[in-house]
Amino acid sequence: MVIAKALSADHTVTVAETSRRGHATRLAQDAARGFTDVVVVLGGDGTLNEAANGVVGSETALAILPGGSTNVFARTIGVVDDPVEATGQLVAALAARSLRRVGVGMVNGRYFLFHVGMGFDAAVVAQVERRATFKRYASHPLFVYSAFSTWFSHYDHSRPRFSVHHADGTVIDDGYLGICLNSNPYTYLGSRPLDLAPEASLTGSMAMVTVRTLDLGPLLSIAASALGAGHRLRRHRRVDYRPGVEKMTVRGHGPFPYQVDGDYLGDIEHLAITHQADALTIVSP
């Protein structure tokens, strides 16, 4: 493999392949326990999330080489989208010892790097995953198609699905769609970032976006705003936008779907979300 050869020129490299859900976490944990300096992940955001869960809180750094369909976290920190070019970036960063300590979120005991989606957002992700064969080759058109398909055929948007309980006592009891962000952007459509929460930062606190309607008109207006600077989204009367989030609880009006870093995890009735500052070392290009 070209990538392994490039990295092994100046470093001792052990290559391991994942074979099942959760395997990357186990491999990363073993590496951290063995005092490995860096765990390098060639994969998508789901594999990266698993590996991060294996090294958070340790001295082992996490490095990213894009191998998925969208590579949200890699692009957020400035990694180029071609894995071979990204390897060159990584070699240079390792030589310069370009390391950053960043914060992560935690939801029900699982760490996340960039976001947790609730309600309609997670239902869209579930539809994308059901068409996983096409995801690698047409991920962005598939996401748009799945959003419309979910709205028209696969989601009950006649009632709110959850309430959001913030640490200051504020309760938003009519949530249809929620996204807790540890970084910005939320995702990318092609080369366009979807900017929801510019205040969300890997070195600061989280932000929470709660959309209080799924009426098609306002929803399209909110989505269009996200493709720009997002100002209209954050001021929209049917959106509760809250930066500076360190802790919150989400309680369902019955089970609601959720996803973590783009990985659909099913339905749940309660989420406890907290921010963990300076929890992870990453190799920064």
Detailed description of the structure:
The chain is of the alpha+beta class. It folds into two domains: about 1-105, 3-Layer(aba) Sandwich (Rossmann fold), CATH 3.40.50.10330; about 110-275, Tumour Suppressor Smad4. Helix content is about 35%, strand content about 35%. It contains nine helices and 14 strands. Strands 3, 4, 5, 6, 7, 8, 11, 12, 13 and 14 form a ten-stranded antiparallel beta sheet that branches. Strands 1-2 form a two-stranded parallel ribbon. The two termini are about 20 Å apart. About 45% of the residues are buried. The model has no long low-confidence stretch (mean pLDDT about 95).
Throw out a few tags for this protein.
single chain, 285 residues, alpha+beta, Rossmann fold, Tumour Suppressor Smad4, 2 domains, 10-stranded antiparallel β-sheet, two-stranded parallel sheet, 9 helices, 14 strands, 34% helix, globular
